[in-house]
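Need tokens for this chain, all 706 residues.
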Amino acid sequence: MDGRNAALPRAAVTDTLPRVVHGQPGAVLLVRTTDGAVLFANPLAEQLAPDAVLPCPVDEWSRLAGLQASDGSELSDPGTGEPASPLSRIARGEPVEGERVSAARGNDLAEAREALWVVGLPLTDTPVEQLSTLALVVLLPLRERQLVRGARESAEQLHSRAVLASDLSFTISDPNRDDDPLVWVNPAFERVTGYGRDVLGTNCRFLQGPGTDRAAVRRISAALRAGETVTELLLNYRKDGTAFWNEVVISPVRDASGRITHHVGVQSDVTLRVQAERERDAALEVARDARRRLEFLSEVTDALSAVLDPDQAQDLLPSLVVPGLAEWAFATVLDSSGRTRHIRAAHARPERAADAERFQQLQADLLDTSVSMRVLRGQLGPSLLKVTEADMVRGVRDRDTIALMRRLGLGSAIVVPLRARGQVTGALTLLSGPDRPPFTEDDLRTASDLGARAGVALENARLYAQQRRSSETLQLSLLSRPSDAPGLEVATRYIPAAEAAQVGGDWYDAFTQPDGCTTVVIGDVMGHDVSAAAAMGQVRTMVRALAHDRSAAPREVLRRLDHVLEGLGVTTLATAVVLQLDAHSEGDERGVRWCTAGHLPPVVAAPDGSVGELAGDGLIIGLGTHGERVQHEARLALGSTVLLFTDGLVERRDRSMEDRLAQLHATVADLAGAPLEELCDELIRRMLPEGSDDDVAIAAVRVLAR
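Here are the structure tokens for all 706 residues:
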């Protein structure tokens, strides 16, 4: 081999041909120089000339591949008087230092016509007689015109061996000798591996080392035994012991009879590519892990935010972090005086649920000097620690308790504060358990973020409950219990809206007038705020006063209310029904009178099971004194039930009012025989199984039989 060419520095090659597609296997041919026959073509070469049947003349292979000269003309055959094609010259044993051609057919690396760089390397200087009549042909893809032009201009400065040495290392082994030994290697092989001619006569397994994938080696051996081309990515080792990633393509070479005579190996050092891919995969995994953590935090936050009861939210928190973040966990919450008021434990394994519950009961005694208590008191911030058995059982003398803690499992622990409004309101303790990897700093950051989010969610639930209690207290303070009336049973209900601060304007009232008649009122002041509740209190008081004065009839009550509101300049708008029952029944009936001001009609269930309405119309309260109030009268059979209600009982965004009223009538008919208190409770349960967005008031009156 030409020592001057082989010694050409790699930097000179890469400077002269700066962006030849490195690291990609080219199309490889093995040509016999005695008769110009192509004996072997690797898979990429087969794709260039898929109709070629080997062995075949090199010019026939060139024609089937549709090769053209750099100027687009057809490549000439020998004997035409024109310059021979590079493949023909290689077949005559001449080296080709690098010429540009193009292929008519695409391959895995190419489009329909691809610029190729042809390099021919006769193996005349090999000591193996069988190889001395062969030449190696490599067609490298050049995809950019500028690169092709630069490569063509520098062709005279390049030598075939230098081009080959720049990227691809080639080996030839003899499978007909024991252990398939190497019989030829090119200079690039020595550049990549550090091994030269001294390894000829040995199998190339000397490249293997402790990190080589044995399964891949077995796949290579199996493919070679089957006479198939094989491609594998192996971690190999250079002569100096350094590792590199080797993309190996080994193909069989057959003679005219189909017998395998040699194996041709093409090896590419793809370490940089593998490292880049691993770095990319690592970056993607980091991004995926970050996304998973954010999704986990979002799920926990959403789950806590959906629970409005603070005690339920506290119980839920530990179960939300197992097994996603911890094997088991518990939360500790302080009350307003700084005392531990709630401890909850959860375990990822169902068979440890009872142990977790027992641990919950014991924690009040175990936490006094623990890291959890120190974090809870603000003495420590978020903490990551390894929990040993000695740490866990320190100060615990009870053997059952020690056994309990061992069953739950130790491992590493994370303790983070639950914060809200700048204050530590609790602590969340996570334990990895003995069967999970120890917690990391990333886990600590995730848990700290979780503690902040959970602290806010728990505080919101507490504030919601506080506001709800305040709203209910305010609302109920304006609603007095109905007074007893002879021959009648009265039951009332008030259900506040789901929104904690939505104090409504719904009200009910029932009282006995001086003449013995019983007046029942249902009403709804427009609005859902404190102003509406205050206005409701005013209107309710006025109605009670006007109805009690001179035992006024329902029409008179509403007419006088219109005048009072107008005279006082009160702009409150409200709907109402004022219903009055006679003091005594006559026979089997009792007289009833009612007047409606824009309100839904009361529902009446008769003793025979029929259900109807006490229909009426009239302007809503607060529109002035211009309209005439109409009073209606009827007789109710003893045993009848009258239900007065506000629109929160029947209004739904996803159902029409007609459907809901029909459902109400059917429910009242089904419950007509139930005790009145039970009727009210069951009515609410059936009509409002998921609560109500609006407040609801109910007043039910049953006319008792003698």
